[in-house]
Amino acid sequence: MSRPVGDQCEEMPKQNVRGGSSGAVRALAMLLSQLPEDVLYHILSYLDYKSLSRLCQVCKTIYHFVNRDAVWRTIAKEFLNTGITRSGTDIYPHIPLKDRVKIAQNWYDGVCKRAIPLKWKTKLLPWLQMDRDTLFLSQAADIGAYHLRQDSGRLQHKPFEIYSGHEGDVCRFVLTDSHLISGGSDGKILVHSRRRNMSMELSGHNQEVNCLDSKDGLIISGSRDRTTRIWTLTSSCPRDTIPMYDRVWSVAISPTLSSFVTGTACCENLSPLRIWDVKRSECVCSLGTQFRRGAGVLDMVFESPFQLFTCGYDTFIRLWDLRLPRKCVMEWEEPHDSALYCIQTDGNHMIASGSSYYGVVRLWDKRQTECLQFFQLSTDPVSSPVYCLRFSSSHLYAALATTLHSLDFSQNPVYIR
Description:
The protein is mainly beta. 13% of the residues lie in helices and 37% in strands.
């Protein structure tokens, strides 16, 4: 049998629990502290987050037990952006789950502190990626790596490292554990080592590289030249070239590495979403059947081997089950009829999207059809799209034409009593 939580229960100073006399509370605490851990876990699984937070105030022994991540895991899975994915993976294991649940309430209520960490004069089409405490931002032909302070999420004003080499602007870039891979308006793909001062050039496209993705040494790129190319890190030449007969705006490699999806401009009589077999370089199937002309797909993200989220010019976020490709299983419409430039999900319930007008960022709960929260970031007379956004457990960063915005949801978190 599991050991009891504690042999004695020391009362927390200057705190009490609402309702009931202090003697009854101490008696209850003594009883709980003598229970085996597995029994206590089972009892606590019936409590909501408010009850758990109040229970923390009973005594030190109960406080330390209730603060364990295992107690909060089931509750955290029902909140937005706590780092617990639908599959049960914990994205932020270094942050206590109780703290993440508190911050999650701010995401849901839209409570945040806004800031503009970076500004620049020339209008650009920036792109973002995040890796733990580092934010990567493309500006013209360079990509800067900026430290994020762990305590506040604030961005250092100067990059600690710059990745360069393109003769034109960087269109997109992706991160792997060992490389930063960028595609530019010069038609080149540059593979930068993140561990050594080395880079490799991949040449093949004759117009700008609009999109790319990379996993486990595999690189997929799409271009304005109406081709998709398959690359590996072992060669500077493409392994295969696939004619698309339309401009390619987005690509995503399946987590299984056996297939990838392309999103095109939808200017020809072809479906803008198609699934391709990596080994055979052949189209497996198309997604959807009724896309109006010009409904190009600008961004896409896999959430599992069978779940794909897409967005684009037709103002919809769509969820596709790749086992049922003829029709999307869910969709969310941008209420102001704006194109959607970018999306990111938390792997569970939340979607963040960036719109084409006035720098609007929207938060969506997948369990609802209506938008949950929205933030208008652009205050200039001429509006800017949100070209890219990325978020952590407490911060959201959005790149507009001349500014980088941050939304800090850890400010004044809701403390439950």
